[in-house]
Amino acid sequence: MAVGIKLNPAQAEENMTGYKPPFSKQEAIIEANRCLFCFDAPCIMACPTGIDIPSFIKKIASGSPVASARTILRANPLGASCAQVCPTNVLCEGACVVLTREGDPVKIGRLQRYATDHVYSNHIDVLEAPAEKSGKKVAIIGSGPAGLGCAAELAQLGHEAVIFEKEELPGGLNTYGIAYYKMTPAISLGEIEMIKGLGVEIRCGVQVGIDISTSQLKEDFDAVFLGIGLGKSHQLNVPGEDLPEVIDALDFIAQIHSDPLHEVPVGDNVAVIGCGNTAIDALTQSKRLGANITTIIYRRGETDMPAYDFEFDLAKTDGGEFLFHTLLKEVVANDEGRVSSLVLQKSQPGPNGRPEAIAGSEFSFPCDMVLKAVGSKKQVEMLSSLFPDMEMNANGTVKLDPATGQTSVEKVFCGGDCANGGREVVNAVAEGIKGARGIHSYLSGASAESPVQPSRLGVDGAPSGSGFINPIRVTEQ
Ligand SMILES: Cc1cc2nc3c(=O)[nH]c(=O)nc-3n(C[C@H](O)[C@H](O)[C@H](O)COP(=O)(O)OP(=O)(O)OC[C@H]3O[C@@H](n4cnc5c(N)ncnc54)[C@H](O)[C@@H]3O)c2cc1C
Fold first, then answer.
1. CATH placement of domain 33-121
2. How many angstroms separate the CA atoms of 79 and 173, rounded?
3. 150 lines ligand 1 (CB under 6 A)
4. Which residues, 6 or more positions from 103, have their beta carbon under 8 angstroms from its beta carbon?
5. How many A from CA of 388 to the centre of ligand 1?
6. CATH fold of 246-372, please?
7. Is 147 touching ligand 1 by the criterion CB < 6 Å?
């Protein structure tokens, strides 16, 4: 057993593609005609960015993919990546009336991909910024979906938006974190080019707090939007955690997005600790890169796991194995200092519901690589160094006005994972747009109660009054 390169380039590429293949024109038109074009459509209510789904589908049915893409991208400038990464089963497609009638929803995500692919592959710009500018400048910290959603909306409202990004490439987790077989970094980067076409400037390799201070930003800009996302995975706090083959699942996934696929080393026998969506992504990608055995180790039961059902099904289809009610006690090294096994122990729910070890149930489990995926840390330290006076919620997220995204710090707005605790790309985009509209009202001197451009988006990012809240993705395990 050893960690190393398992596949040749062609095998690696093949294993990582074909998850949800694009529709041909004919397939798209047939699928679009399954839509009932509901009045007060529940799918719109279920979309945090409130895309007018029946309208864009109607335009595909009538052979107008450009008009369709315009409808999508005006509501959600990251509509192309959302088409590929959104958990549509629990959002728009989960609310589709055709699902109730026929047991199979209209494939809204794939139709959205058809329309957005059409404009990107034909280099057709469907968004535009007004010629007349407001003269106001906004600094955005972080180029993830929240920062990009905010920047695109600000540009369309006539403001200058400058994004500061610490990484080499923009996009945040959209570029570095989404499972490769769902969406490649190229899609994310292509979409960002379109946003740059609105006049948005992105300065990569600039870490706010190190390379430029927040006081400088507040001095040079009329407002600031904070979209720094979440941090690394939590520690396991077990002996052997510092061995070289014990890796943060987020770093492993980022490497898949940075290096050639076939050059990413994996173990023969990979153990993933945790059972959220990130754990599932780590398992499926290590399997597709050639791991022989991949096993999720989870201290609670199958019904408790935070991962979506469809992600669980995908992991099983990929040959993933699951050890439920199992605690990790230790990572054991061989004589060469390499991971060789785990000490595990069976668990059961204690009186307070927390998993408790069952005495005498320890066992050894062979393994040569461990991926840590037990929830992402909130960036409490970074936030308090950037904005020492910023009010925080008890759970480590940024406290803000839910209607406008305004924080307790003058001029500073916020959205995305660092405010919501970790949801989906589409929630971060919706919150970025909401923040942009809050900033627009702030810069225009309108009150939050009567914003200049009323937001369709309610407290949770979903359209006002929908009552729809999609689940939290990142759950402490
Ligand atoms: C492994 C994984 C898989 C996921 N898969 C999906 C999926 O399939 N579908 C889905 O909808 N959602 C998915 N998500 C969730 C989704 O990626 C996030 O909800 C979304 O990216 C949050 O956007 P954000 O802009 O708030 O943060 P991020 O995407 O994390 O972006 C924050 C950005 O801020 C930058 N930054 C941080 N600090 C600074 C600083 N001081 N100065 C400058 N820049 C800074 C970071 O480098 C980063 O680029 C996944 C998440 C993970 C972890």
1. 1.10.1060.10
2. 16
3. no
4. none
5. 23
6. FAD/NAD(P)-binding domain (3.50.50)
7. yes
